[in-house]
Amino acid sequence: MTIKNFPKEEFFSFLKIFIFCFAVVFLVINLGTIKRMFNYGVVYGGTEAAQLQNEMPVQEETVLTEKPDSIEIPKIQITAPLVFVASAEKSVFSAALDRGVVHYPDSALPGEKGQIIFLGHSAPPGWPKIKHDWVFSELNDLVSGDEINIYFNKQQYTYHVNEKVILDKGEDLPENITDGLILLTCWPPGADKRRMAVIAY
Predict the structure, then answer these.
(1) Structure confidence by residue, pLDDT tens digits, 141-180
(2) Best label site of 44, 145, 150, 166, fewest CB within 10 Å?
(3) pLDDT tens string 31-55
(4) In which residue ranges of the chain is CATH 2.40.260.10 found?
(5) H-helix or E-strand containing 14?
(6) N-to-C CA span, the chain
(7) Cβ atoms of residues 67 and 151 within 8 Å
(8) Could you please report the per-residue DSSP string of 15-49?
(9) Which residues contact 84 (CB under 8 A, 6 or more apart)?
């Protein structure tokens, strides 16, 4: 049967089915864009857009500094040296923790992408300030938005606390924490039972 002899009714029926199928496929492929077009809150910067913006972590700010490599947490009046080690071996790490807050060697450095992990001792209330056994004793007092300054390689990196996580010994950080500054210490202070992580961006 040639196109010339194709019945009109069948042709229009075929055309309707073709247009319908095309429209369905088009909608499925472009569903995200279409939904966004009709979401006036996002298009015009309304409440939903503000909520999305608030959920985005604020990245660290950087400025030049002459301060030596150190950490400063104004809220809990902490200033301590940063110690960098080449090995995570227990004896090396223990000795380093006596000298300050220790960078975990397999983690990113300040200013780099990825998890920037620093560890410090904690001690119970009233513990004498010997060495740096006490440096992270009050991490639990930090709340969202509190400032943490890292001075490294003549740069100041300012982070803001986002959340705190309590972990079992040996437990990994939640999978959604892939970058940012992470401060780790024993929990509760002075007891080697669990771990507390403060995550800041």
Answers:
(1) 999 999 999 999 999 999 999 999 999 998 999 999 999 9
(2) 44
(3) 555 554 544 333 334 433 334 334 4
(4) 61-200
(5) helix 8-29
(6) 70
(7) yes
(8) HHHHHHHHHHHHHHHTHHHHHHHT-HHHHTT-HHH
(9) 69, 102, 103, 105
Q: Phi/psi at 140 (nearest 5 deg)? A: -65, -15
State how far the alpha carbon of 159 is from the alpha carbons of 21, 61, 92, 110, 201, in Å.
52, 7, 28, 10, 5
Tokens of 21: 């199928």
As given in the structure block, the two tokens for residue 59 are 């990245």
For residue 169, the cross-strand partners are none
Which residue from 88, 187, 182 is spatially nearest to 137, judged by alpha carbons?
187
Q: Which fold has domain 61-200?
A: Sortase; Chain: A; (2.40.260)
How many Cβ atoms from other residues are within 10 Å of residue 42's Cβ? 15
Q: What residues contact residue 42 under an 8 Å CB cut-off, 6+ apart?
A: 36, 48, 49, 52
